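FORM 7B: Structural annotation worksheet

SECTION A. Query
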Amino acid sequence: MGVADIDWSAPWLADWRAVGEPIAQCVAAGVSQHQALTEASLAPVGFVPQADLPEGQAYEDFIYAKGQVPTREGLHDFFNALCWMHFPLAKKRLNQLQAAEIARAGVGQVRGPVRDAATVFDENALLMQAPDAVWEALTAHRWQEALVDRRAQWAHVRLWTFGHAALEKLVQPYKSITVHLWRVPPAVDDAGLDAWLAQDLSTDKLATKPFSPLPVLGVPGWWAPNGAPDYYDDLEVFRPRRARARAEKPYVIQEIGPSD
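SECTION B. Predicted structure
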């Protein structure tokens, strides 16, 4: 799968299409990905070949020091670059947080809580503005209430895609793709979202991992199959909430699975 396989009519790409589709067409025509992304001149960073990252230097540290993003061909790094274009302040903030943690603690086998949470957010976040009743039902994993009984209230829900790993998976949609919700206050509008998010991404807040998982293809109107009455009865995907042991790590960075 590559950029030529992206369905730009997908609802989760509605905010990204105007910027992303022309760049994808350039890449599909044979322009190297880092070149097409840099020439768009829409990000506060440049994009360079992955080979420019020196051996032994941390990826986030290189971006912070050089203002350049090592970029591989393929969907993952393509969507990451588009996120830099759509959320330049928030992406810069995430990079600053990562670089500060690397400077403080180095790069070890296990990320600390802030780097861990920042990575989850960067890879998998879905920003959500929603009525209290919908939000409370989602965070309690009352899926039938949130996604069926309160379906009409989704007309008042606003979603912004962010996580580039989630977007990569959505090029080939499957039911269990799970994102992590980050709530946006009602007063924040499109124009102010990036600046608000950059301020909201504090070390203290990230360290608490204030995420709520959502099987993203359960969003009303985002996937035709979820109109079927029994779609949300699949307990392997729409799992009831369970208590976690304090010592259990709540997120796995390499592969974030269905909600627990």
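SECTION C. Observations
Residues 88-105 form the longest helix (18 residues). The first strand starts at residue 46 and ends at 49.

SECTION D. Sign-off
Analyst initials: ____
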